Amino acid sequence: MNNGFEEDVIQEELQDTESERAKGQMLKGSAWMTVGSILSRILGALYIIPWRLILGASLFPLANSLYTQGYNIYSFALIVAVAGIPSAISKQVAHYNALNEYGVGVQIYKKGLSLAILMGIVSALILWVAAPILTNGDKNVIPVIHSLAWAVLVIPTMSLTRGFFQGYNNMAPSAISQFVEQLARVIYMLLSAFLVLKVMHGSWVTAVSQSTFAACIGAIFGFLVLVWFYWKNRNYYQGLIKNSNNKLSVPTNQLYCEIISQATPFIILGAGVTIFSLIDQFTFFHIMRFATNFSEEVLQINYAIFAGNANKLTMIVVSLASSIGITVVPLLSEAFTKKNKKALKDSFSNALVLFEFVMIPASLGMAAIAGPLNRTFYGTANMDFSSNVLAFSSIESIPIGLFVVVAAIMQGVSQNKKAVKLFAYGTLAKFVTQYPLVYLFGAFGTLMSTMIGFFLATWLMIRALKHEFGIEKNMLQYESIQIIFYSIVMYFVALVSVYGLNWFFSLFTTPFSSIISLIVTGLASIFGAIVYAYFMLKTGLAEQVLGKRVGRLKAKFNIK
């Protein structure tokens, strides 16, 4: 009896250790992916300022609308081209690594590589040929789609290689590659726009086409970074293969079947945000033409404001959720393979709490500073409308981000088909509510229907996870209430700071210039962040979510 009891105790201790290790890996991986994603997204938003100045006030709204329409179609084509293979590779590599069969993981990567190359070629050809029927009535979209087809050739291979590294819980190569990709893209984008418009005095459509072709240039540089990382660490990976069990032999056909079966749901779920964006793109203009007397130019500007301007900034916040989602998949796959129920339950709870800890204050904070933030990037044109759309979009990013994380959790525990089915319900809700909400509320209606769709899909997924695996409900409720409460406090501090700083600067100059707006944005963000950080440290929540090392900050700043 005693021996049995001791074995149970030892087993529980091992599971606790495994859970702590998984939590540490999640935090470390999320940190790398968050830094990479945030820096990439910030670069992807900052380019707007010089790009707007190069195009000029008259051309920028039309160019931005054209850019956004092309990019939405490209994003969907890219997700199909990538075919969910990187995340599937990440999951399967982690699965076989947990069995100490590193050689099989490498085989999966090689087979996936041939699939990625084939999918890239086929998708790029389809995108090129289908461009004339994807214009939504605007022929200027054709050269933009053609320029983006080149990127579809390269990105699947790059994304697949990122998935291989992620299968080893090594997020640094992906994060650094992501940043380099974005940096190269932005440099080419701005340089080409300047040369076309200012030096060659060419067409603004040509300038936009070259700006979108920059995605291909960025992908090439991002892939080269990954090649360098592998070459640098090749002896390490070869050593793991050499010291594997090497008892498992998986036939080629089975490897392909595993990749495709795992990848298909990733296509649909990974395309979730893009699918909703395409619904907006192909319904917004038709509904608004029926509901209003707005000119085509006004409709293009309205579309650019919610689908382009606001989306670029709120995606910075959503990238936080994506970082958590990317990190949690291989960890859950490993725990699922080892049948460690406690590690699974803890990983669910840790992922959700980490999401709330980061995402809720970030979204509310962006909503609070929406006015000066919008003016910093987009100037004073349509100032009030643009700021209100950005504030609403910031709140919308919470259900979008939660969907990204929960969908990743579902896939990590092989609930792929169920996740796709539940997402379909959310998409149906988006369709059903789109027309009446856009008819009544215009651009805000698209945001409302998106929130409804993602909220429904996510709620159904969380309910399914709770029923199948269980979630630490008490811990989630306690920490969630505190995070939400202190995030709201932070929101009002940042909002009051914006109004106060605007009043202060109005005594000396116009408070709505880009430079003053940038200063107001920075100061209000700092004030809000300090308040949130103080309460998180004082209550001990930061230590619970981020680990014991954070306690040093508490001691350093003498917070009791």
UniProtKB/TrEMBL annotation:
rRNA-binding in keyword set: no
Membrane topology: Multi-pass membrane protein
Any one annotated GO CC term: plasma membrane
Alphabetized UniProt keyword annotations: Cell membrane, Membrane, Transmembrane, Transmembrane helix
Main location: membrane
InterPro entries, alphabetized: PG_synth_SpoVB, Poly_Biosynth_Transport, Polysacc_synth
Range of residues in the leader sequence: none
Superkingdom to which the source organism belongs: Bacteria
Coiled coil: none
Keyword DNA-binding: no
A Pfam short name: Polysacc_synt
Subcellular location: Cell membrane
Transmembrane regions listed in the UniProt entry: 31-53, 73-94, 115-135, 141-165, 186-205, 211-231, 266-288, 313-336, 348-369, 389-410, 422-438, 444-462, 483-505, 511-535
Protein's name in the database: Uncharacterized protein
The species this protein was found in: Fructilactobacillus sanfranciscensis (strain TMW 1.1304)
